[in-house]
């Protein structure tokens, strides 16, 4: 029998690692066709589901949900993103969020607030496809490697690893359009549209112009996405456990989506904080030709990298909540399998002495 205090700690800590190790780990069960069964909680197909959990159709529709969730939301906040970027690269001219909006409208008119919408929509749609689609792929892949018991014990690490793996590829898809967007938004007079900016950037710096920001993007987006997915998954779990007065299986689809939105906003606030310094570097780097990430970081200094944080918290908090809401709504609309919050496997309960 393991100590009760340690058992409760293992069950209650939202960022827990396994506190126990075993000499023997059971192999995942196999079905009649010799395939390993899914280890994520409640992964079975219910009668109302349109496809099998982990099937090609499931991954494809998850990727489509990612396109909608990221493409629509990032495009919707282009005005705020434009002001945020200008605050980061020219703080002497744009002194605050309100001042940034007024200066931009005075110089470029109301239409100027929409600068960069096309590369934003294309770039973040491609990022959403890879981010959400590959997250589902890697989450199931790593879960199968760990086995049922370790998937439960190491679930936070599983979310972190799956989201980091997905974001690595998502940023490669995003980098070209992100570079174009920032150049349009932060260099007045350089170009007003995607069709003007792309050939001009290619003529000046070649293909490097579109990928020189990929490393800072990884620095910004991988921690951001790790926080976004792991914090969301664990927040949903805790909300259903401690806040929502009934199990998720008894909640209506609307009630479930409200929980999704709340958990998404909480995750978004933390996302904005952990990724903001790298976001500042990316903005300045894509504005200035010939600079490196190290040079930009030195130029900005410890205080400069936090310029525009409030605007980014507002933007990312709202953005992340809406992204999860749209993504979950797509799953509901297409009747995709939506596993319940994870529960401790019966075999693990017996090892911990929680059941007879």
From TrEMBL:
<feature type="transmembrane region" description="Helical">
    <location>
        <begin position="257"/>
        <end position="278"/>
    </location>
</feature>
<feature type="repeat" description="Solcar">
    <location>
        <begin position="255"/>
        <end position="333"/>
    </location>
</feature>
<keyword id="KW-0677">Repeat</keyword>
<comment type="function">
    <text>Inorganic ion transporter that transports phosphate or copper ions across the mitochondrial inner membrane into the matrix compartment. Mediates proton-coupled symport of phosphate ions necessary for mitochondrial oxidative phosphorylation of ADP to ATP. Transports copper ions probably in the form of anionic copper(I) complexes to maintain mitochondrial matrix copper pool and to supply copper for cytochrome C oxidase complex assembly. May also play a role in regulation of the mitochondrial permeability transition pore (mPTP).</text>
</comment>
<dbReference type="GO" id="GO:1990547">
    <property type="term" value="P:mitochondrial phosphate ion transmembrane transport"/>
</dbReference>
<dbReference type="GO" id="GO:0005315">
    <property type="term" value="F:phosphate transmembrane transporter activity"/>
</dbReference>
<protein>
    <recommendedName>
        <fullName>Solute carrier family 25 member 3</fullName>
    </recommendedName>
</protein>
<keyword id="KW-0809">Transit peptide</keyword>
<feature type="repeat" description="Solcar">
    <location>
        <begin position="154"/>
        <end position="238"/>
    </location>
</feature>
<dbReference type="InterPro" id="IPR018108">
    <property type="entry name" value="MCP_transmembrane"/>
</dbReference>
<keyword id="KW-0999">Mitochondrion inner membrane</keyword>
<keyword id="KW-0472">Membrane</keyword>
<comment type="subunit">
    <text>Interacts with PPIF; the interaction is impaired by CsA.</text>
</comment>
<dbReference type="GO" id="GO:0005743">
    <property type="term" value="C:mitochondrial inner membrane"/>
</dbReference>
<feature type="transmembrane region" description="Helical">
    <location>
        <begin position="309"/>
        <end position="327"/>
    </location>
</feature>
<keyword id="KW-0496">Mitochondrion</keyword>
<feature type="repeat" description="Solcar">
    <location>
        <begin position="57"/>
        <end position="141"/>
    </location>
</feature>
<dbReference type="InterPro" id="IPR044677">
    <property type="entry name" value="SLC25A3/Pic2/Mir1-like"/>
</dbReference>
<keyword id="KW-0812">Transmembrane</keyword>
<keyword id="KW-1133">Transmembrane helix</keyword>
<dbReference type="Pfam" id="PF00153">
    <property type="entry name" value="Mito_carr"/>
</dbReference>
<comment type="similarity">
    <text>Belongs to the mitochondrial carrier (TC 2.A.29) family.</text>
</comment>
<keyword id="KW-0813">Transport</keyword>
<dbReference type="InterPro" id="IPR023395">
    <property type="entry name" value="MCP_dom_sf"/>
</dbReference>
């Amino acid at each position: 029998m393991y100590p009760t205090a340690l058992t409760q700690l293992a069950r209650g800590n939202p960022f827990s690692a396994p506190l126990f190790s075993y000499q023997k780990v059971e192999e995942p069960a196999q079905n009649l066709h010799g395939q390993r069964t899914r280890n994520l909680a409640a992964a079975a197909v219910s009668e109302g589901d349109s496809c099998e959990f982990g099937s090609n159709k499931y991954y494809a529709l998850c990727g489509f949900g990612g396109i909608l969730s990221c493409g629509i939301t990032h495009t919707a906040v282009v005005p705020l993103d434009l002001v945020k970027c200008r605050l980061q690269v020219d703080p002497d001219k744009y002194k605050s969020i309100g001042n940034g909006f007024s200066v931009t409208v005075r110089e470029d008119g109301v239409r100027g607030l929409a600068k960069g919408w096309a590369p934003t929509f294309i770039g973040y749609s491609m990022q959403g496809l890879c981010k959400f689609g590959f997250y589902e792929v890697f989450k199931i892949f790593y879960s199968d490697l760990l086995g049922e018991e370790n998937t439960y014990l190491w679930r936070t690490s599983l979310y972190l690893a799956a989201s980091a793996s997905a974001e690595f590829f998502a940023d490669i898809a995003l980098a070209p359009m992100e570079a174009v967007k920032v150049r349009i938004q932060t260099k007045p007079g350089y170009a007003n549209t995607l069709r003007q900016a792309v050939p001009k950037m290619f003529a000046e710096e070649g293909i490097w112009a579109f990928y020189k920001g990929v490393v800072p993007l990884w620095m910004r987006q991988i921690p951001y996405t790790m926080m976004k997915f792991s914090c969301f998954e664990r927040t949903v779990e805790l909300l259903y456990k401690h806040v929502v007065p009934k199990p998720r299986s008894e909640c209506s689809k609307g009630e479930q989506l409200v929980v999704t939105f709340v958990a998404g906003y909480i995750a978004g606030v933390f996302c904005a904080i952990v990724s903001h310094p790298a976001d500042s570097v990316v903005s300045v780097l894509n504005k200035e030709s010939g600079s490196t990430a190290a040079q930009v970081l030195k130029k900005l200094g410890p205080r400069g990298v936090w310029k525009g944080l409030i605007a980014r918290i507002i933007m990312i908090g709202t953005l992340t909540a809406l992204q999860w809401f749209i993504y979950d709504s797509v799953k509901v609309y297409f009747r995709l399998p939506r596993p319940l919050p994870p529960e401790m496997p019966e075999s693990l309960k017996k090892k911990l002495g929680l059941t007879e």
